[in-house]
Amino acid sequence: MGIGLAIAKQAASEGARISLLARSVDQLQKAKESICQAYEVEVSIFSADVRDYDAVERAINEAGSIDVLVVNHGVYYVEEFETQGLDVMKTMIDVNLMGSFNVIKAALPLMKDRKDKGPASIALMSSMAGQVGTYGFAAYSATKFGLRGLAEALQQEVLENNIHLSLIFPPVTETPGFEPARKTMPEITKIISSTSAGMKAEEVGKITIQGIKSGSFSIPCKLDGRALVIATAGLSPQRCSSWRPLKWFLPVCFGL
Ligand SMILES: NC(=O)C1=CN([C@@H]2O[C@H](COP(=O)(O)OP(=O)(O)OC[C@H]3O[C@@H](n4cnc5c(N)ncnc54)[C@H](OP(=O)(O)O)[C@@H]3O)[C@@H](O)[C@H]2O)C=CC1
Ligand SMILES: CCCCCCCCCCCCCCCC(=O)[C@@H](N)CO
């Protein structure tokens, strides 16, 4: 299971109405079935390439109201900068970065127009390679760092609309997309990425939904990611999830 389906399942388990967007109709059908088997929620599927703005806009307008927009799609080709072709680098920039702009551009007017004006979220799937530039990930890291710039700037513009940006920073996660990437990965990348042990998509899904619900701007997945959020804080909005445990510690200290 990919990270996107894991997030959708976690949201479905909490009663959300789900819309899924990807290219493969076959995969979308399977994903819908697996959600509907487990949960009694409404699931709609939309086949579109995020690089095609018009197709994305049509899908989003059909999907109806959006409280939480999860911008999870992404591709990764891991290779040294000198050997990686410019065409492959451009594909990552087009899908990961421009694709995210397309999705948000199409969804934002609808999100701003939502009736209840309660809190809404836009969550962007970054990576630990979007926290630290990582060997073999030059173009990929650039796209994931790019999402941070987008999130920080857009947060300032949509705060008045009660829309909250989040960035998720998973380490290597076992997914269908990761399998081929693992096979072709440079040895050094294997060593570096194995310092942050792998996660299951389900775990990342749970952490993502929990982070979105708590309104966290930065959503690390494990202790090392949490340390990197602090180390790379910059001027990101500091409703950082690292501080959330305090809320727990305080009542415990007071014996509640
Ligand atoms: N797995 C990992 O180790 C990590 C992954 N990430 C990030 O998490 C996200 C999900 O990764 P993961 O679950 O591993 O990936 P998968 O390859 O398993 O799934 C990616 C999903 O994105 C969709 N997608 C890809 N390209 C497009 C496109 N052009 N238009 C529309 N949809 C598209 C795919 O559907 P379809 O092909 O049918 O379009 C698929 O559903 C990515 O952004 C990735 O960078 C971050 C850290 C670690
Ligand atoms: C206290 C500080 C601790 C520092 C630890 C540094 C570890 C850096 C690990 C970077 C790993 C990047 C994996 C990204 C995988 C990914 O995004 C996938 N799409 C790849 O295929």
Automatic annotation (TrEMBL):
One of its GO terms (cellular component) is endoplasmic reticulum membrane. This is 3-dehydrosphinganine reductase. InterPro entries: KDSR-like, NAD(P)-bd_dom_sf, Sc_DH/Rdtase_CS, SDR_fam. Its EC number is 1.1.1.102. GO terms for biological process: 3-keto-sphinganine metabolic process; sphingolipid biosynthetic process. GO terms for molecular function: 3-dehydrosphinganine reductase activity; nucleotide binding. It comes from the Eukaryota. It holds the Pfam family adh_short. It is found in: Endoplasmic reticulum. Pathway: Sphingolipid metabolism; Lipid metabolism; sphingolipid metabolism. Keywords: Endoplasmic reticulum, Lipid metabolism, NADP, Nucleotide-binding, Oxidoreductase, Sphingolipid metabolism.
